[in-house]
Amino acid sequence: MSTIRASSGHPPLVPSTESNAPPRRSAPAQRRTLRIGWLRATLVAACALLASSSDARAEGKGRAHVVEAGQTLWEIAQSYGCKVDELQAVNEIDGLLIQPGQRLRVPRCKQQGGSSSKGLHVLSHEVSSGDTLYEIARRYDTSLDDLRRRNDIKGNVIHPGQTLRVAVGKDGEGRPVAGQSVGSVVRGRLVNGMQLPEGRGYYRRRPHRAWGASHTIHHIRRAIASVRNRLPKVHEVAIGDISTHDGGQLADHRSHQSGRDVDIGLYYKKRPRGYPKSFIRGDQQNLDLQATWALIEALANTSKVAGGVDIMFLDYDLQGHLYKWAKKHGVSKRKLGEILQYPRGESSASGLVRHEPGHATHVHVRFKCPKSDEKCW
After folding, report:
1. Contact 179/216 with Cβ under 8 angstroms?
2. Positive or negative, the Cα torsion across 184, 187, 188, 194?
């Protein structure tokens, strides 16, 4: 190829192979292009640095937890081995109020339970109907994080019959973090009682008498959450006595000694004056039969679960109102017979719900002993 020289004496140019080559840019245009290119490169680098920094901060703050219906900030903190103020700080929460579906950041807490294998024994736990990952973690005094890690679980979904690996103490026994029922409901006590926390949907009339076995607290909160999921506009329900911190004799009660009894108020069409600070007598005119039935049904559904409902006590006339409402709204005769004593008479030994004088203002619920509480009967 021959070289073409310009007549002006400038350095030689190689002919372009493009037939439509753009004209050469002027020096000012080239400088503008360089400045724009430099700005773009700087912006991209800054974004990458911010993303990297954000990822590092996210890694340092741990993982995410999606709040489930009925959960409290205290329970979530306990399940991850954290303190409430640690969760509040990382999520910029001032109080204790959280919402179902809310996404919380969980820091990697220094005292995170279940993180060390030293002195631990790994056993197998077969999931029963009604079990939750959170409940199993509490039962064995471990953390959700450790349960997920050992069983390659990403979220909270487990299935009846599934076998989980659980790390416990050297003796191979699970130690409930709180709320172990000992003895009977009329001659018993609580070991490390668990207090029903403040929560959405209910009001604790006497918090110092709101201590119970861990499974009792769990079932109470799940039943109330179930009612609110079905009927979001219902008012708060009154929670009466469960037990004191250590159980034992409780004034005004023969039972309520081992954290497995609870008095729960009723739902009304219009919240009565003084309720839920006081129990109010229910009748056909003032009761919200739909919501009250939803509560009774949610509690009754636990009866086939370990530690579920053993028996409930409710005025016979109120049972009659509930029976007629439920039958009218399609509840089967078989299910009604399993749950209610009505219409077989006040002395009948049928149904989970039985008549007891003085129970027209509330339902008395008694839960069975869970398998983990070996000294409970």
Report:
1. yes
2. positive
Check whether the bond before 343 is cis (ω within 30° of 0).
yes
Strand partners, 195: 211
In-domain check, residue 30: no
Q: Are residues 224 and 346 in the same domain?
A: yes
Q: Is residue 259 a contact partner of residue 179, using CB atoms and an 8 Å limit?
A: yes
Q: Are 192 and 180 in contact (CB under 8 A)?
A: yes
Number of domains in the chain: 3
| Secondary structure E strands in 205-280 | 211-212, 237-239, 261-265
pTM reported for the whole predicted model:
0.60
Per the structure block, which two tokens stand in for 28?
A: 């000012």
Q: Which domain holds residue 141?
A: 121-168
Strand partners, 163: 126
- Cα(113)–Cα(143) distance, rounded to whole angstroms? 5
Helix (H) / strand (E) containing 138: helix 133-139
Is the CB of residue 308 less than 8 Å from the CB of residue 219? yes
Question: Dihedral sign, CA of 79, 217, 332, 280?
Answer: negative
Closest CA to 266 of 214, 317, 218: 317
**Collapsing DSSP states into helix, strand and coil, what is residue 340?**
strand
- DSSP 8-state code for residue 4: P
In terms of residues, how long is the chain?
A: 377
Residue type, 257: Q
Could you tell me if 134 and 184 are in contact, meaning their C-beta atoms sit under 8 angstroms apart? no
Cα separation, 195 vs 259, whole angstroms: 10
CATH code of the domain covering residue 80: 3.10.350.10
Q: Has residue 78 been placed in a domain?
A: yes
Closest CA to 78 of 220, 207, 177, 211: 177
Report d(CA 334, CA 349) in Å as an integer: 16
**pLDDT (tens digit, 9 = 90+) per residue, 149-196?**
889 898 889 988 888 888 765 443 444 445 789 999 999 999 888 889
Percent of the chain with pLDDT over 90: 47
Q: Are residues 241 and 152 in the same domain?
A: no
